[in-house]
Every structure is written in C-alpha cells, then in structure tokens.
Amino acid sequence: MPFTFSHPxxxxxxxxxxxxxxxxxxLLGSMTPDMEYFVAMEPFRSIGHSWxxxxxxxxxxxxxxxxxxxxxxxxxxxxxxxxxxxxxxxxADRLAERRDPLLTPxxxxxxxxxxxxxxxxxxxxxxxxHTHGWFVLWQSDLxxxxxxxxxxxxxxxxxxxxxxxxxxxxxxxADYARxxxxxxxxxxxxxxxxxxxxxxxxxxxxxxxxxxxAPKLLLDPSPDNPVLWLVAACSSLLFGLFAAxxxxxxxxxxxxxxxxxxxxxxxxxxxxxxxxxxxxxxMAASDLPLWIGYVWLLSIAFVALSxxxxxxxxxxxxxxxxxxxxxxxxxxx
Length: 333
Hints:
The chain is mainly alpha-helical. It has helices spanning 23-29, 35-40, 51-80, 87-97, 105-129, 134-138, 140-144, 152-182, 195-219, 226-247, 252-279, 288-307, 311-329, and strands at residues 146-147, 150-151.
C-alpha cells in the first residue's frame, strides 16, 4: 500500500475546487481505511476499506483524531518545536489562523462529507497500487508488466508514497517562507518557551510512547517485521504526544486526572494489539462486533479526554461569561 500519510495529497487539493469542504475532514478521510492499523499497532485489516468500515470504524476514529488534534496536539506543537528560525511561532500563528469552525450542524455536515470524499480518494489510489485493486484487475496486463524487476503497480506504490511526502514537505517550506516574509517586522505574538522545557516535553512524550511501543515488540511473535516496527512506532509516537499534551495542560488537578486516565488508555493499547494477534487472518463474523465495539469505546475515550478544557481555557471562558453578564446587568457590587 502507499504510505498512509501520503494519501492526503490526493484529497486535500479538492478544497481548492470546493472551499466549503473541511480541511481536516479531507485529510483524515484520506487515511480512514488505514486507521485500524494504528489502533492495532500492526497491519491488521478487517473492514476498514469498505463503506461499512467507513461508517463503523472510520467515522468514530476520525472524530476522535480531530478532537485530539484541535484540543491537545495543536496547542502542544508550538511548545515542542525549536525556537530556531522561529519554528515555534510559525506553528502557533498558522494553527491559530487555520482552524475549522467548532461543531455546528453545518460544520458537522461538511466534515462528514469531506471525510467520505477523502475515503473515496484513498480507495481510488489503492485501486491502482494493490495486488487486487480494481484498476490492477481491470488492466491486469498493463499493471503486472515488470519494469526493473517489479510490476508497474508496485512502482506506483513507491511513486505515490514519495510524491505525497515530498508534496507535503514542499508545501510546508513554501508556506513557512511566506510567513517569514509577512512577519519579518512583526513583534512576537507568543511567549517563548525555554529550551529545557521543550526538551522536557519531548522526553515526556518519548517516555509515554515507549510504554506502548516496548511491550508490543516484546510480546509480538514477529518482532523482526519492518512493517510492524513502522506502524507500532507511529502509533506510539502519536500516543506519546497526546499523553504529553494532556499531562502538560495547565492545572494540577487536570494533570492528575490526565495521568490517571492514561493508565486505562495504555491498557487499551495492549488489548488492541492482543486482539489483532489473537484474531489474526480473516476476521470471523463473531470477532467483528467485538472489534467495532472496542474502536468505538476507544474513540469516545479520546474525545472525552480531549474535550476537557485546560485550566487556563476554563478560566478564560468563565471570565468571558462573567464580563458578558456584567455588560447586561452592570458590574457586581
């Protein structure tokens, strides 16, 4: 398969044609069929590439990913990026500017539609790069013709993976250059984070990720599988960053609650890996409801943890509500 994180290249540009589409919906939708791999921490496949899988697995996982990004990972990113070349301020500015609207019926509708469009783009690309893809089967002679020892569809896998990563890197570089030109004379809008604090954030994320990564490799029957290393490493890195974002939120009580909540999340990660290992091969009909229910419970847990406001945000919200009340009835005496 093409590298999962290269798939957005084939979905995100569609927003140029229809600006009302959700950027996060297109991006996440283009990766939904592969999301169950990262839940299981290995290339474990059930129904993720079918329309039933989109509804039962892709939608809850995408909503959880969107909530985790908006409320936990996006605020954390400027705190982790280096101050060199003002990368931390670039991230803070761009993340503040490019946010999809908060949940409203209209925004939810566009998000779900964008998810489905991104999902279809994933199937389109997979159809040209999978052994049993629809285009590979339709044009079998063409796609199985060997070039330099590999069939054409395999070369397309490598090409699309490389193009997706290069296009993303080039876009980021160009956007960063535009931001540098526009902000050259502007005063810093965000307080600097000390280098030691940044290092502490990365250390915390790495430690939390390692708690998930090490047992997976130790307990898996095929620890020398390079695809397993790649998928498990990505899952562990994302979990580590999410955990660090929760633990670094302002407010001592919130940090304690986050630390307590991460214990069952870690246990859930181990359970996902065990389920994938025990089920193995083609999933039996009796196993599928268990897997779907597990994915829903995990998604709900991530949404609930992400949506808890930080101490600073809660205080700001309370202050804003108090000011609005005073503006209507006069200041309290």
